[in-house]
Amino acid sequence: MQIDNQVFQLLYFGIATLNDFCGSDVRPSKEPQGRKSFLQKLRDILLASVTFPAGVFVVCTFWGIYAVDRELIYPKRLDKLIPVWLNHALHTFVLPLLLVELAVVYHQFPRKRIGLGILSTFSLAYLIWILWIAYVSDFWVYPVLKVMHGHHRVIFIGTLLVFFSFLYLIGDFFNRILWGKEVQVSGEKMKMK
C-alpha cells in the first residue's frame, strides 16, 4: 500500500490545493453561508474516507511490522536501492502532514455509514488486487503475507480491516476535538434538513 498511499496522498493534496485556489472554504459557523464547491466536498470526503485512514494505516502497520521483523515488510536488500530519506517519505512523513491538515483546515466528515462504506469499498478493492496478484503470479506484494499459513493470513487481514475502520473513527474523533464548534453547527444544520 506504500506506493498506492503516495498516489492517494498526492491526489488528495492536489485536490486540496486546487480547492484553495478555485474552490470554496465554506464552514457551518461562517456567515453569510455560501455553497460548498464540488472540490471542497470532494476534498472533505476524500480526506475522511480514504486519505487519513490509509495514511495512518501505512505508518502504523509498516513500522509495527518493521519493529517485529523488518524482513517481513522491508527486507535489508532494499536499503541498497531505496535511500533512508525516501523510506521515511513513504512511511513516516505522511502522518505529520495529515495531522497538520486535520488541525489547520476544517473538514466536514460524512456520516459514519457513508464514510465507512467508502473506506470498506476501497479496502476490499485493494485486498482483492493483492490477492489477485498472489493468485496469478504466486508473488505476495507484502512479504509478511507470504510466510503465513492460510488461516493466519485470514485472521491477520481481518484484524487489519477492523483496524483500518477504527482509523476512520479516530480521524472523525480528532476532527470533532479540533473543530468542535464547526462540527456541532454542521450537525445542527444537517438535522434541520
Descriptive report:
The structure is a single chain. The longest helix is centred in the N-terminal third of the chain and has 32 residues, at 38-69. The protein has helices spanning 2-22, 38-69, 84-91, 94-104, 112-137, 143-146, 150-178, 180-192. It is mainly alpha-helical. The chain contains 8 helices and no strands.
Rg is 19 Å
How far do the termini sit from each other? 39 Å
What coarse outline follows from CA principal-axis ratios? elongated
User: How many beta strands in the DSSP annotation?
Assistant: 0
In short:
The protein has 193 residues and is an all-alpha fold. The protein has helices at 2-22, 38-69, 84-91, 94-104, 112-137, 143-146, 150-178, 180-192. It contains 8 helices and no strands.
SSE topology sketch:
Layout: H1 2-22, H2 38-69, H3 84-91, H4 94-104, H5 112-137, H6 143-146, H7 150-178, H8 180-192
Helix pairs in contact: 1-2, 2-5, 2-7, 5-7, 7-8
What characteristics describe this protein?
193 residues, mainly alpha, elongated
